[in-house]
Amino acid sequence: MRMKPLFVAAALALTTALAGCTFDGGLRTFSGDYGTRTDAGYQLPTIPIYKVPKQFHRQVVRYDTAETPGTIVVDTNNKFLYFVLPEGKAMRYGIGVGREGFEWKGSARVALKREWPVWTPPSQMIGRQPELAKWRQGMPPGITNPLGARALYLFNKGGDTGYRLHGTPEWFSIGKAMSSGCIRLMNQDIIDLYNRAEVGAKVVVL
């Protein structure tokens, strides 16, 4: 009987340690990690994650690949981004991808990483949406900025691809094809990916 308080304390400690995530077959789902947070002076709002299909919540999954840990694999068909981990696992994120006519595939590398980046719409986008001309010199960082809280800039042998892995305030676009080719993640997810991915990391877009 004297062991009972110790058992209870251990159980409480374990419960606290697992707060914000659930387990499925030994793998973790971080559905509790989408709340309000302050980041670099900006207030990220809570994402109503219950409105986002469960498969698009950040989670550790089993992932069989020949790519080395630290590689980013983008599965545009299934709307998943995988950050390859050791031992046959990956951190999986739900993403939004390019709409019809703006899809792309290939290999690139993370050349630059930026926190709360400035967004400058390309001239082709301004041509399609003239109202964006006011941001020709760049839209300041902020919670309404289309690049969100973080951006990873993708380059290949030809230089800047023009594509980014970035956050978005439009959490409802995750799991859909709505962008002009860039890969969108929920802001809380791009912060997590930003902290994991290194400059020079290989990116494979399927």
Automatic annotation (TrEMBL):
The active site is at 166 (proton donor/acceptor), 182 (nucleophile). It comes from the Bacteria. One of its GO terms (molecular function) is peptidoglycan L,D-transpeptidase activity. GO terms for cellular component: extracellular region. Residues 1-19 form the signal peptide. GO terms for biological process: cell wall organization; peptidoglycan-protein cross-linking; regulation of cell shape. The keyword ATP-binding does not apply. Pathway: Cell wall biogenesis; peptidoglycan biosynthesis. SUPFAM superfamilies: L,D-transpeptidase catalytic domain-like. Pfam families: YkuD (PF03734). Keywords: Cell shape, Cell wall biogenesis/degradation, Glycosyltransferase, Hydrolase, Peptidoglycan synthesis, Signal, Transferase. Residues 70-206 form the L,D-TPase catalytic domain. Belongs to the YkuD family. This is L,D-transpeptidase. It comes from Mesorhizobium zhangyense.
